[in-house]
Amino acid sequence: MLPSRSVLNALGLDVRGLPLDAFFRAGCVLYAAAYLAWTIAVARGRRRVSAWGPLALALVVWALTTFPLQRPYGLQAPASDRLRHLWWAATAAAGNPPWESGWLGQRTLEPAWSALVSLLALRDPARVIAVYPFLPVLGLAATAAALLWAFRARPLRAVLVASFVLLASTQALDHLEPFRMFWARHFLLKPNHALGLAMVPLLVGVLARPLTVRRGAAAALLLGTLGWVFVVDWALFCASLAGFAALAAVHPRRPRQGNGVLRLAAVAGASALVVAPFVVYLSQHFPNAVSLAAGADPGAPARSPWGDARPAAHSLVFLATFDLGPHFPLALVGAWAAWRRGRRFDLLWLGALAAAYAAWSATAVLYMTARARAADEVYWFLAFAVAVHAGIGAHAIAVRLSAVARREGRAWPARRVAAAGLLAWLPFTIGWWWDPPRTDPHFTAALEPVPPEMQALAAWVRARTSGQDLLAAAPRSAAWLPALAGRRVVRVPTDDLAGFDPATVPAPGVRVLVADAPGAAEPPGVVEEFRAGSLTAYRLGR
Q: Helix, strand, or coil here: 510?
C-alpha cells in the first residue's frame, strides 16, 4: 500500500483542495496587519520589536509560501538544485562521507552543507526531506541576527538595513528576469548560500575594529569558514577587502583610518590557507568551477562549461542598476553617506559594493567569451550589497529630515520619519505583492507530492539495506532514491535493466536492483522482490 502521507505538507496537514487565491489574499492581509504593527513599534521606539520585526515578517512570508506545498520548495526530478542538495545531505545522513553525492563516482559541491543538514536530520536519511522545508528559517534568522549585530551601534539603521535585505530586496517583476527573484532563489531555494551571505556582516563587524592578533586570527578563521560554506562569497569578500584598501587609500581621512592593509592581507592570506584544501578538491572533481576555460559546445557556443550564458534580452548595466528596484536610488544615497562618514565600518561596506560591481563587470566580459562562472551568485551578492546600502541611505534621509524638522521647531524624531517611510514602502515589500502560484515555477512544482511509489520504494530500501550499500536503478528511480533513501546509486540507462551485470560495477557489490518496467525479467540471485506502481525492486543475496 502506498503511504497516505504523500498528500501532507511539511507540518503533516492535509492541504488537498486548499484554495490558493483565497489563501494568499488572506495571507496578504495578515502580512499587512503585522507590517503596520511593526511600523508602529518603530515609531514608538520599541527597540526589541523594531529590531526583530523584519525577521518576523520574513518568516510570515516563508510560512505562507511553505504551508500549501506537498514537497520541499523547488524539488523537481530528474534534475534540480534542490534535488541534488537532498542527494548530498541524505547520503551523508546515511553514514557516507559528506563529499559523496549519491551517484557513484560523483562528488558534492558543498560537503560542509551536507554534513550540517545530516546532523540536523539526526543522521537519519528519512528525516532529511522533512527537515529541508524549515532550513530557510535558519538562513533568514542568521541573516537578520548578523545584520543587527553588525549595525548595533545605530539601532535604527540596523532595523532599516535588515528590512531592506529581508523584505525589499526583490521586486514584483523579478520573476521575468534571467536570475529571477533574489528572495525566493536565495532564502527559499538555497539556504546554504544564505548562510554564506549571513557571514558577511559578521566579518565586516569584526574587521571594522582594530585588528589585534587575536581578533585577526578569529577573522581569518571566520573568513576561511565562509570559504567552506560557499567559496564564491569567500572570493567576493576577499575582493571586498581589496576594495576597502583602495577606498581607504584615496579617502580624505586616510591618515586617521589606520586601515592596517598588511593585517587585512594577512587575514585574507590565512583564510586562503584554510580554504585551500577545498579549492584543491574542487579543482580535482569540478575543474570547470575553478578554471576559465571557454565553452566548446558547437550547439551553444555562447554557453560556458559551467552553463552560464549571457541573457541576450537584457541589458547587463540595467540589471545591475535600476532593474534592482526602487531602492537602488536609496542605495546611491547610502553609498554617498558611507563615503562622507569615512569610518572603517562604512568603507568596508563600500568595499563590498565596489567588489560586487567589479565582479559583475568582469562577468560581463566573461559572458562575451563564453567563460562566465556563477553569474547568478555574483548577481545575488550585488543585490545583497545594494539592499544594505539602501537601508543605510534610508537611515541617512530619516536623520536629515528629522534635523530639518527640529530646526523648524517640529518634533519629528528620526524613528518616526523612518516609520512613515517604511509604511510608504509596504507595496514594494515581498509579502505584499508576491503571488507564487502565478509567478514561481518552483512553487507550483512543489504543489504535487513526491510520487507515492517512490516514497514506498525508499522506505523499503532503507529497511533492507545499510547506508553504505549500493543500488542500481533505472533513470527515474535513480533520480529519487539518493534523496529519499540516502543510498548511493548506479544509474542504469534502461528501464528494464536489460544487459546490466552488477559484477561490472567498480565498487562493492550492488545489493538492490530497481527496474521501471512492469514486464522486466527477474535477474538471478534475487532473495526478495518489492513492487510499487511500475517500479520493481530486487534485493540480491550476498
A: strand
Q: How far apart are CA 31 and CA 56, in angstroms?
A: 10
Closest CA to 368 of 306, 288, 295: 295
* Cβ–Cβ under 8 Å, residues 219 and 203: yes
Q: How far is CA 455 from CA 5, 6, 87, 484, in A?
A: 9, 8, 15, 7
Q: What is the pLDDT of residues 180-230, one digit of tens each?
A: 788 998 999 999 999 999 999 999 999 999 888 899 999 999 999 999 999
Give CA–CA dist 170/172, Å, rounded: 7
| Strand partners for 470 | 488, 510
Q: Are 488 and 95 in contact (CB under 8 A)?
A: no
| Selection from 378, 361, 64 nearest residue 193 by Cα | 378
In degrees, to the nearest 5, what angle opens at C-alpha 105 toward C-alphas 103 and 110? 70
Task: Please report which helix (H) or strand (E) contains residue 32, including its range.
Answer: helix 20-44
Query: How is residue 487 annotated by DSSP?
Result: -
Are 450 and 130 spatial neighbours (Cβ–Cβ below 8 Å)? no
> pTM for this one?
0.93
CA distance 174 to 182: 8
If we measure between CA atoms, which residue out of 293, 233, 269, 236 comes closest to residue 110?
233
CA atoms within 13 Å, Cβ hemisphere of 4: 3
User: 330: exposed, middle or buried (C-beta count within 10 Å: 0-12, 13-18, 19+)?
Assistant: buried
Contact 254, 298 (CB under 8 A): no
pLDDT tens profile 317-338: 888 888 888 999 999 999 999 9
**Side by side, which strands form the sheet with 488-491?**
488-491, 470-473, 510-515, 535-540, 526-532
Q: Give the residue from 377, 288, 396 showing the smallest Cα distance to 338.
A: 396
Q: H helices then E strands: how many in the chain?
A: 24, 5
Whether residue 185 contacts residue 179, with contact meaning beta carbons closer than 8 Å, is answered with yes
Strand-pair category, 526-532 with 488-491: unpaired
Cα separation, 475 vs 478, in Å, equals 5
What single DSSP character describes residue 171?
A: -
